[in-house]
Amino acid sequence: MRVGVKLVLVAAVVVAAGVMIGFYVSNLTTLAGSPAYSLPVQNVNGHPVVNLEIQTVAAVGPQLSRNPDWVSYLVRNTSGQWKRETVWSLPANATVHVTIYNFDGASGLRNPFLARPQGMVGNRIMVDGKPTEAVDPNEASHTFAVPALGIILAIPGVADDAKDQCGYAPCPMSNAHRTIKFTFHTTTPGHFRWQCFVPCAAGWIDGFGGPMQTIGYMDGFLNVKA
Amino acid sequence: MAANPNAAPAPPSDRTNHGMRVVVAWLVLSAVATPLVAVFVGHLIPPGNGSSQGTEQVFDNTLMLTVITPILCLLAVFFVYGLRSFHASSSGAVLDGPPLRGDSQIQILWIVGTSVIVLFLAGFGTFELLQNGAGGGQGPDPIAVPGGQKMQVQVIGQQWQFTYRYPSLGGIESNQLVLPADTDVELHVTSLDVIHSFWAYELGVKADANPGVDNVAYVKTKSPQVFHVRCAELCGLWHGYMYNNGRVVDSAQFHSWASQQEKLYAAIKPFMDKPEADGGAPFGHTYLPAPERRAG
After folding, report:
1. Is the Cβ pair B296, A112 closer than 8 Å?
2. Domain B151-278 is in which class?
3. Sheet holding B161-166, edge to edge
4. Where are the domains of chain A?
5. Rounded CA gap, A101 and A176, in Å?
6. Other residues' Cβ atoms within 10 Å of the Cβ of residue B118
7. B205 and B187 Cβ atoms separated by less than 8 Å
8. Is the peptide bond prior to B35 cis by the omega test (within 30 degrees of 0)?
9. How far apart are CA A194 and CA A199, in angstroms?
10. What count of CB pairs under 8 Å joins A to B?
11. Residue A68 CB neighbour total at 10 angstroms
12. How far is the C-alpha of A123 from the C-alpha of A153, rounded, in Å?
């Protein structure tokens, strides 16, 4: 084989490998841009307002995932259905009212400091209708955290002996749950990742594999658009 | 014996002193390039002058670049000279080059020269490390401990965020790293789960965050500035997003920030101050958080 042909072959293999690595590395960036669930925006006195309803479930169930036993966040769409989508589009400079329904039990935080709500309006959350400035770290079931926006809050879990606990999602409101409400403001456009900090992936090493390392379960993006 | 008809023709006699030409060209190029690199390029090498350790690293990098410049010049001169003088002519027969012969003087010169350079750099690097740690993590029993009073800050890594605990401020914890200007800081770097690496780029600090290990690093801040903190150890899905900004501020701003954080921290303080057996923070006083404290 001629030297020129060999060089072309080597160059082709190197380029092909580079393209494949590039696709792999850019996967997260692609996820940050699309597909995203665009939350309906209300206009209140000329100011964009969004209502975000999400639920956290111990097992996402066979209807919503090929991994029915994975812990997950779900979002309620405009038709009232719960969807397993964790990349959400929000308008910039908007007020976002968040309601989280948690149907999962407590796992506990590795770092108790993260049980201090921060980054939302008033640095406090409403837990089952009561204003709360600190959740017992041992009772934390999940967190909702957007580190780049300084938002973090712990979500208390359902008591172990609670009746009517949810098996598989989507969980009806008749099942035992906790309700957490808070409000935050978006600022400039950008892609902001969000995540859970509680090692809640049962059955995985240190509770941080599987759904904790896969976008679409316990991680996602807020795509804030102008 | 009959001559081999396939043998390559003998190279023409070449009395040119190639070695001397290469040496002269190398000396001239090095004499020009080395001071230029030292003066104009050295200070451009990161991390900059954000801390005493950063300034020392710029000096170290400048010195190493200065040492390596003549070596790079030798390679470049030899390469270019070889291409110009020893390439096959486009017409005529392919001729063999001059034969390579052993030269004990060159060998000795090469061994001595490279040994001196390597030993010098090893000695220089060791001296710089022992001087004040060069901003690197020194493990739980640091060797190069700067004298004088130091402000302690615990850096706690977890998937995927750093938080910072200030024992001298009542143990408050924050998700922002704020440091006072012109202050010696003792960083205790650790992790609650997997291996991370705390890299405060402009401060010239880089220390591994290992679960269950108290990795101590030192830094002396200079004037107020914003610096970048990022994780330098691949640690999972959001490793690429594990960064934020830190700030060096003047003393008044630092105390104002600290009092704000104390108010914010007050709500969680009762839980943090509990004994670990009762669910309190396991790292409040010992600097040794238990790794993988809980798992699902």
Report:
1. no
2. mainly beta
3. B172-174, B161-166, B151-158, B184-191, B215-220
4. 1-33, 38-225
5. 10
6. 10
7. yes
8. no
9. 15
10. 99
11. 14
12. 9
- Widest distance between CA atoms in chain A: 78
Residue in chain B lying closest to A152 (CA)? B175
DSSP for A140-179, please give it. Answer: EEEEEEEGGGTEEEEEEPBPTT-SS---SSSPPTTS--EE
Distance from CA of B162 to the nearest CA of A (A): 10
Backbone angles phi, psi at A9, to 5 degrees: -65, -45
Report the C-alpha gap between B174 and B225 in whole angstroms: 19
- A24-51 tens-digit pLDDT: 766 655 554 446 788 889 999 989 999 9
Q: Where are the beta strands (DSSP E) in chain B?
A: 151-158, 161-166, 172-174, 178-180, 184-191, 196-200, 205-209, 215-220, 225-231, 243-249
A134 CB neighbours in chain B (<8 A) are 267-268, 270-271
Beta bridge partners of A158: A105
Q: How far is residue B129's CA from residue B123's CA, in Å, rounded to a whole number?
A: 10
Contact A116 B175 (CB under 8 A): no
Instruction: Name the least confident of A19-28, A81-90, B121-130, B189-198.
Output: A19-28
Token pair, residue A214, equals 């896969």
Q: Is the ipTM of this complex over 0.90?
A: no
Helix (H) or strand (E) holding A185: strand A178-185
The answer, for A153 touching chain B at a CB cutoff of 8 Å, is: no
Query: Where along chain B do its domains lie?
Result: 18-84+114-135, 151-278
Q: Looking at the domain that runs over A38-225, which CATH code has it been given?
A: 2.60.40.420
Distance (Å, whole) CA B145 – CA B218: 8
Beta strands in A1-124 (DSSP E): 37-38, 41-44, 47-57, 72-76, 82-83, 87-91, 95-102
Cross-chain residue pair B271–A136, CB shorter than 8 Å: yes
Distance from CA of A46 to the nearest CA of B (A): 32
Q: Give the pLDDT confidence of B144-170 residue by residue, as tens digits.
A: 888 889 999 999 999 999 999 998 888
Residue contact B271–A111, C-beta within 8 A: no
Question: What's at A128, amino acid-wise?
Answer: D
Whether residue A194 contacts residue A54, with contact meaning beta carbons closer than 8 Å, is answered with: no
Per residue in A135-190, pLDDT (tens digit) is 998 899 999 999 999 999 999 999 999 999 998 988 999 999 999 999 999 999 99
Angstrom distances, CA of residue A91 to CA of A5, A94, A120, A172, B217: 54, 6, 17, 29, 42
